[in-house]
Structures are given as structure tokens and as C-alpha cells.
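PROTEIN–LIGAND DATA SHEET

This sheet pairs a single protein chain with one bound small molecule, pyridoxal-5'-phosphate, given as SMILES. Inputs appear in the order they were entered. The predicted three-dimensional arrangement of chain and ligand is reported afterwards as a C-alpha cell string under its own label.
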Amino acid sequence: MSKFWSPFVKDLVPYVPGEQPKLAKLVKLNTNENPYGPSPKAIAAMQAELGDSLRLYPDPNSDRLKQAVADYYGVSTAQVFVGNGSDEVLAHAFHGLFQHGKPLLFPDVTYSFYPVYCGLYGVPYEALALDEQFQIRVEDYARPNGGIIFPNPNAPTGCLLPLDAVERLLQGSPDSVVVVDEAYIDFGGETAIKLVDRYPNLLVTQTLSKSRSLAGLRVGIAVGHPDLIEALERIKNSFNSYPLDRMAIVGAAAAFEDETYFRKTCQLVIDSREQVVAALSGLGFEVLPSAANFIFARHPQKDAGELAAALREHGVIVRHFKQQRIAQFLRITIGNPEQNQALLDALRQVL
Ligand SMILES: *Cc1c(COP(=O)(O)O)cnc(C)c1O
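PREDICTION REPORTED AS:
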């Protein structure tokens, strides 16, 4: 706290990301990174870009990347927005699409950045309780609102809302913007991008950080009606003309173009997830059904905070949230087979 801070800054409650440990030895299963690394074609594209061209600004519109995304999803480039991580894309959506006096709706257990953006941009919100099985109750969202946002699959639960339920939710709020945050959709869900031509109030965001293994590059996208995209562009062009650098534009475009590598690595993660779920169930854990690259699990006899601390002693870091409703759960990223084995070995010792 400093006398130089504005009252607004004093009142901010910032987001706290999962730990990025400086020790390389730890088995890092706490921030849902992908164990397989980016497409070799993405790396080659970035290596080719690394040179004298860096003295020039990048394309402010990132047309090369927008075209790759548009081709991949069969939409027009006017329906595509790109940003410096999907967190930035989401921030612009909160800023530009959720300011209507009425409260924004999102689940009580969800991505903890949402209330932070509400604080930053002065968006009132209501958190609606998930049901006993930690599922979204679509009926609850058919009430007056200034927008709706939820991750699908949800975070940190991993639970998927099927596409027909997403559509029912959209039909319940035709006059406000519905943002579906599909950070994990490639690990087991069907994208709502299929619906954007029919629902002008639908904005779908995705990230290259998880299924395309480019968390370090910082690239996110949004797909929706050109009018929604234009609102995001207006904010972006009032804030930072060049949110994506030259490496990010070519690397992300090449990642979208390498579908073979993408499919193969997603499938490896999905297969490992099913093995880890079975093993954890065998150890007595209750595991929520996951369509993501992480699982959300609790042990009926072990305190989750103590378990997380004990795992860390054994060199494995997972994520534990203090929020009361989920304080007995651990969120565990699916790693490669060696990492998953290290997790299971550590758990067997700790239990
Ligand atoms: C990881 C994540 C994001 C942010 O992704 P970046 O593109 O890395 O900023 C957004 N939403 C959810 C639910 C996430 O888990």
C-alpha cells in the first residue's frame, strides 16, 4: 500500500495464478500445462521468424493467425478475435460486453479470474450454485442478467455441459451475451463454435495454452458474431495495438495448421486421464467426471490441504483451492506417463 495508489488500486483483489516453481525437479501438475510440448511445426515457424524481422512491428490485426483459425473452424475472419492469452480476450469481453447494470451470472465454483475481472471493470455479478454433482443447472440461468460466462468443461471441476444444454442456456437469455470459455474443450467436449451462426449473442473463447501446449507463448482466441468481435477490437485498439508479437502470430497459426499432432497429443492426454482416474478410484478417491486435461478429486479420509502439502514433500505439486465448497478437493493436471506414475507413487506413500 502506498500513498501514491489511487483508491481504485487499493480496492483491487488480483488473481493468484498457480505456482511456477523455480526448482526444476518438481513434478508439476498444478497449472494444467500440456506435457507433450508444442507442434514441431509451430516451433519451426517461430524459429524461422526469429531474426531481423523482429525490428519491425508485427501485423496489428494478426491476419495470418485469424485466417488459420477461420479455416480450422469454417468461419469468416470477421468472426475471429485473437489476444495475448485467452485471459486477455476474456478481460476485453468483461470490459466491452458485460456492462449492462444487471448482474453477470456464473457458477459458484468456476474460474477464479471471473470475479477479479468483475472487480477490475465494475461488473456486478451473481454466482449461481452448481448442483450436488457439481453440474451447471441450466434453468437457473434463465433470469434477468447482464451476461453469462462459464468454462466448458468447467474449471476446476472438469465437468462438461453437453452442447444441447449450452444451446438451451443460450435460448434462455437471447438479449445478453453468453461467453463459453472453452479452455479445455479439446479434451472431450464438442465446441459451441458450431452455434455462432445461429446465436448472435454467443462468444466462444479458447486458448492455445492447454490443448496446443503453448502456455508460454500467450495466445487466446474468440469466435462469435462480427458485432461482438468488433467490440473486442475496439477495446484492443484502445489499449494495445500489438498484443500478439511476431513469434506468437506464426507459432499459433502453425499450431492450428498441424491437426495431426494436435489430435495425437490430445488423445494421449485423454488416455492417461482415464488411467489416472481408475488408479485414483482404486486408492479410494472420489473423482468428478472430467472432460479436461485435469481431474478434480477428494479422498473421504484425508484432508485435501494436508494431502497437497504431503505431495509437495514428495516432489509433486497439485492445486488446492481454499474456497469452502471445494476445500476438500485437489485439482490434478494430467501429465505424461512418468509424471502420472510419480503422482500415484507419491499418493501410495502418503496414504
Ligand atoms: C487456463 C485458462 C484460461 C486462460 O488461458 P490463457 O490463454 O493461458 O490466458 C482461461 N480460462 C480457463 C477456464 C482456464 O483454465
